[in-house]
Amino acid sequence: MQEAKGHIWLTREDARARVLEASRFSPRVERIAVAQSVGRVCAADVASRQSLPNAPSSRWDGVAVRYDDFAAGMPDTSGWREGREYAFSNTGIGIRGDYDTVVRIEEVSFDAEGRISFAAAPAQRGALVMPVGATLEEGEPLARTGQTITPELAALLAGGGWAEVDVYARPRVAFIPSGNELVDAGRELPLGKNVETNSLMAAAKLRAWGAEPLVRPIVADDVGLLVEALCEAVEDCDIVILNGGSSKGTDDCAVPAIERVARVLCHAVLMGPGAHTSLSVTSEGVPVIGLSGPSGGAECTIDWYVKPLVDRYFGLGFNEPPKVRARLLAALDLSQRSSGSKVKMAVRCLLARSSDGFVAAPMGVLPESLRLQYRGGNAFVFASGVGFALGEEAEAELRYPYAFPPRAEGLFDDLESHALVL
Amino acid sequence: MQEAKGHIWLTREDARARVLEASRFSPRVERIAVAQSVGRVCAADVASRQSLPNAPSSRWDGVAVRYDDFAAGMPDTSGWREGREYAFSNTGIGIRGDYDTVVRIEEVSFDAEGRISFAAAPAQRGALVMPVGATLEEGEPLARTGQTITPELAALLAGGGWAEVDVYARPRVAFIPSGNELVDAGRELPLGKNVETNSLMAAAKLRAWGAEPLVRPIVADDVGLLVEALCEAVEDCDIVILNGGSSKGTDDCAVPAIERVARVLCHAVLMGPGAHTSLSVTSEGVPVIGLSGPSGGAECTIDWYVKPLVDRYFGLGFNEPPKVRARLLAALDLSQRSSGSKVKMAVRCLLARSSDGFVAAPMGVLPESLRLQYRGGNAFVFASGVGFALGEEAEAELRYPYAFPPRAEGLFDDLESHALVL
Q1: How far is CA A23 from CA A287, A313, B302, in A?
Q2: Which numeric CATH code is attached to B9-28+170-313?
Q3: Yes or no: is domain A57-130 CATH 2.120.10.30?
Q4: How far is A271 from A384, CA to CA, in rounded Å?
Q5: Among residues A320, A379, A14, A359, which one has the least CA distance to residue B407?
Q6: CB pairs below 8 Å between A and B: how many?
Q7: Residue A311, helix vs strand vs coil
Q8: Which of A200, A302, A316 to mutate against chain B (most B CBs within 10 Å)?
Q9: Residue-wise pLDDT tens digits, A11-54
Q10: Please, what CATH class does the domain formed by A323-421 belong to?
Q11: By percentage, how much of chain B surpasses pLDDT 90?
């Protein structure tokens, strides 16, 4: 691992805090159809524009009556007529203003001449009538600024009388793949070249986070070309990702290019995979992330450093990923690593719930079926020093999107090893 | 609650099991671009078509050499020429077939005449060379049938040489809103009418589950019209949802209409909200769900009965939702409910992690800010009999999508009550 002179290394936590602090966003607001709003973030508090029901409504299929007609006991209904002393009322439908009480249809009968009679008088005024606003009251808060719109919330907004809603426009996130070795996915791969696949992963994640990915063409390892691509991106994007070019060796173009357009907060981070990630901010406050090239690093570092920036664009605070104590089902042996390295390793694990807490197994010791099913794992365990012994407790950090871990029972019956040498 | 004669009531679990067992799906397969495949479900096992790297590649920026030239110690390199005894090699790029070893550029220097010299000989043959397949081996399994494609997996498929992938076509799910009281969202709401919002909620959920929602026009409470809509839907859909028309009273049209096109497995379920949900299957095996009308019921019942059917279309087994024991932060008082009811209530709660396990508070006792933030809750507690006392332990079932619960510390400082009367 190259530790060039004058290069700033920060812990993952410090790096994240620094870039969040230094970035400045000007979120745009747009008005969109509520029906298209699921997954978007409210740009204003929303209150209901109407009450539901908007008129006293029947709670049951029956007939609507005036309670006063029953106040002195069961009245003589032989002369009653529909539309005068009573009216049919169906569940959920408003009753006419001059009625105030509903009798269930089951308690109503009609004789051969169509004359109504009641098995029982209504117990009280307003029986089986849903008052205005029983479901939703005009002015009732429905959503707050910064709230992500779920399917349920979208339906509620529509129920509150809103056809459109103000949301934050998707932040524009440039993704610039770089590297002489790269070829676009889907094209024939020449010998000695590699497929550019990170843009696919990044675009899908960014979309899921509510951002608009703008994937640029692959740029060769040339500082001039990179600076050109970066200058264009920082002009019209909220966040810029330069992927690759930050690997081992002296031909490293990413940081020299980024230095020409932004202030470097750190050249690398003390956490692998993806230690060769740089974080910078332009004078306008646009964050420029020099994302690690190898896909294993890119997958993790985009979650660690870019997701919090997207959230911040939406005005959301940073929440630490959930952490739990977990018993390790395999040793993590770091004795082979160079002892001088200060870089901690985030080891991907499958975290599961056991009867008395949590257990975690590094992905590398799992049988193929589990490695495929839980590819990349659902949590990290952080290894430094000599690592961990089998059965030792460690802190496990959930991987985004923070799903509830599966049950451990029976899951780990076929471990391939009880130690992982890193 | 209407318990009509001859009506079949099942527990939620039995109802779900019966409809899963009786439904028959013929999932279609389609080939789509890997770049568009995130969220879709693999219809075949996928193995890598290529090895990565596809040629021995440099692990570092440096020069590629032949190890044999160093076997007898440091050679005289004064006559060496680029492209003959050595060639520049960059990280991740294939080295020419006649070289086998890489020396870091940091250990190489050139004199004024451009003659190369090495600070140290390579330690072994193949040093700093990544062999073919070190990242990915041809034939290596990448995904299994039934696996949902994540951003990471899509990138991996592209890396494995796949531009397209076979996925299951989205199941077609008809959603038929019904009820005389309903008006399309976004239109002016006449007095005494209600907004149809469930289709919006259902369509968004179905899309998130990988299905294609087909929302039909609102149908009036008329058995003939409903039968017509159902006949059309069962013809060309994999799953049919009839929403509403299954509420209180005798004017209930949903079940009589469904009975004309499908065999009713149950007319209602012993679980609220949404007890008035019917489950049926046509002779062709198409499930027809008579989904509860009120939005609170519809939100829950679509998760309970429709989500497992969508999963089953994809060939996936049913997984019970995660359940944990949780200490209740408010009493659940059911003493006011009619004692004869066998219907259990699923009470929406905010479930959180405390230092020694889980705690849960019913949404109804939370302050407005939390009710808005966690609208609908993240878990259910099932109340029957007289309910639960404050501090009692209950089983909490996570609500889909089964997110890891937040930390309890400080979250529940402002409860509005310590009892919820149901």
Answers
A1: 6, 9, 42
A2: 3.40.980.10
A3: no
A4: 10
A5: A320
A6: 243
A7: helix
A8: A200
A9: 999 999 999 999 999 999 999 999 999 999 999 999 999 999 99
A10: mainly beta
A11: 86
